[in-house]
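Explain my protein.
***
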Amino acid sequence: MQSRSKSVNPTTRLLAGLGVISAAVALFSLYSLRQVDGLRALQLDAIDRNRRDSLQLLRIQNNLQNLALSMRDMTEGGSPYPLAAYRTEFDRARVDLQDALEQERRLAPAARSIQQQSFLSDSLQSFWDAMDGMFAAADAGDEPEAKRLIRQVLQPRHASISTTVARLLISNNEAEQEAALEIERIYDNVERNTYYFMAAVFAAIFLTGGYMVSRNRRVFGEIAQLSEERQQLAGRLITVQEDLFESVARELHDEFGQALTAAGAMLTRLERKSTHAPEELREVRSVTHEALEGVRRLSQRLHPNVLDDYGLEGAIEWHARQIRDQSGLAIDYRPPAEPLPPIDREVAIHIYRIFQEALSNVVKHSQAGAATVRLESHGDRLLLEIADAGAGFPAEPAAARGLGLVAMRERAQLIHGALAIEQPPAGGTVVRLEAPIMGTKT
């Protein structure tokens, strides 16, 4: 018993396991959220920004392409317009290029160096300066000089700018591919860590569940052992109680009963011989007779000799008649159709005590004017039923834990019987005991 009292409470370990699992879930959730945030930032800062920057570079490239076509028309002489007529087209392209360059500068990837960004801006500025010189020559009427500037200055600078824009586009594409690879790597890490985490959680659940099953099995085993020990102890206590009742009943019958019987006989003889105070002698003899009857009733309650003399069926019928005479309760006793087979004496005592307690509860608590007692046998089983139409049991749980009911259940378990206490919808209480006739005792 001491080892049980010192056994470790599994609640602490279960709570610790729950705390570890909860902490692991929280840490993994934080890790996953951080990875998702990083992925979102990478997508916004790298991929989306890269794509918008590439759109501006394509816008610059498209304007440069238009300028290249215009310069080709200006130098090949196929255009019917003078060179100065192209100024409006160049100015419009210049404004659009400046706007595209400004937006591209704001969207440029962080990996691009300041020198690369400045080179594109300076190259465009140099191109515009040469363009202004070309249109100045055209405005002065020196178109050959203007065409020379286009071929020797503007077109080479235009080619350099186009090459720079193409390289920037390639760089953006490479950066986008690297970002896609990084995103894929993050996804792979999250997926791999998710599998690891799920395996760890399943392992923790398996270990915790295994521990709980093992611990509960041990606890239930201890409870079953304690229940068996309690039942054995209850059986020994009830046996000792019955032995004590039998001993006290024998003492009452043999000592006090015989003494009171002798006193009554002596008083009867004295009453016949004496001529003085016969009334007082009769009163004393009456009191002595009542005391003798009280001793006999007490002796019967402590140990029913009628059970030894007439068996269980006769004892139940006798006790029902006694209760009817003492309390006025109308009892409808229904004996078995055939005589009961011999029943073990101790088992019969347990059944009789259950019957006594059930009938006593009817008298004390049911407020009923009548009760029905039915005794039957079905094969190797015995059925005892006590029913009344009274108030029934109170709704409070404590009422079902009365000592009398506890003793009834203990006695039923000792003979491997089944005790049921029911309250029919119509009211009242039905106490039903079913037990083996041969009485396999614990």
Summary: Confidence is low (pLDDT under 50) at residues 1-6, 395-401. Strands lie at 330-334, 370-378, 381-388, 418-422, 429-436. The chain is about 75% helix and 10% strand. Residues 143-273 form the longest helix (131 residues).
